[in-house]
Design a protein that fits this description.
Number of strands: 8
Helix content: 40-55%
CATH class of the largest domain: Alpha Beta
Structural class: alpha/beta
Number of domains: 2
Oligomer: single chain
Strand content: 5-15%
Radius of gyration: 17 Å
Strand order of the largest sheet: 5-4-1-6-7-8
Shape: globular
Distance between the termini: 20 Å
Number of helices: 10
Largest sheet: 6 strands, parallel
CATH topology of the largest domain: Rossmann fold
Length: 220
């Protein structure tokens, strides 16, 4: 990976601290439509497909349009309770200034992805955004990575995927790209126990690692 030209970032848990917002959004509609909540672990067990599919799998299809509208309204109105990880904006700008292409590869649906990236003023920074709404096979399947590479005309050998979960790792390695795990907390670190890959425990460490792989990106 000494001469990479494209970096594909996961979104939730990699660029933005949005997990609590996601759990709260699901529990908002669960309380409204079922009268009960689920734990974060229970909600996570449904993850993989987009939020729309998760809602159908958790609650059912009857009245879905109302549930989805309520989910989006809650998510949009509580985005201020989420945050970008410290240094993310500066990292993305430095990569763009170095002439790198950057993209997002997320399991989120297109609506919540756009809401999140627009809220943080990041949407226009990315050369491509691949969401769970655009693929038939979700992470850990490499379809999303392949789609990004095809659209941008970049070979896998010049690409790095950055993510916070083993599904990101599996998608990257299946597609033949490089991979960096972000392990900002003990939970994310434990996910990569026994997985041999490069790891960054902070955004600053991620930028330094990317700089070590390519001299066009200056370290912090």
């Amino acid at each position: 990976m000494a001469d990479y030209s494209l970096i594909l970032f996961d979104l939730d848990g990699t660029l933005a601290d949005t997990h609590q917002l996601i759990f709260d959004s699901f529990n908002f509609i669960l309380r409204k439509y079922t009268g009960a909540e689920k734990s974060p672990k229970e909600i996570l067990s449904y993850f993989g497909p987009t939020e729309e599919v998760c809602i159908r799998n958790i609650i059912g299809t009857e009245g879905f349009d109302d549930m989805w509208a309520d989910f989006i309204d809650y998510y949009r109105s509580h985005l201020e309770e989420s945050s970008l990880f410290h240094g993310v904006r500066e990292l993305l700008v430095s990569l763009k200034n170095a002439g790198k292409r950057i993209g997002v590869f997320t399991a989120k649906g297109s609506t919540t992805t756009e809401l999140t990236l627009e809220y943080y003023g990041l949407w226009n920074l990315f050369d491509i955004v691949v969401t769970g709404s655009l693929v038939r096979n979700h992470k850990p399947h490499p379809e999303g990575v392949h789609l990004a590479l095809e659209k941008l005309g970049v070979p896998a050998s010049e690409t790095i995927v950055v993510g916070d979960s083993p599904s990101d790792y599996k998608a990257a390695t299946s597609a033949g790209t490089g991979f960096i795990a972000v392990t900002y907390d003990s939970v994310s670190r434990s996910k990569f126990d026994g997985i041999d890959c490069q790891k960054a425990e902070s955004v600053a460490a991620l930028k330094s690692l990317l700089a070590s792989l390519n001299t066009d990106v200056s370290p912090l």
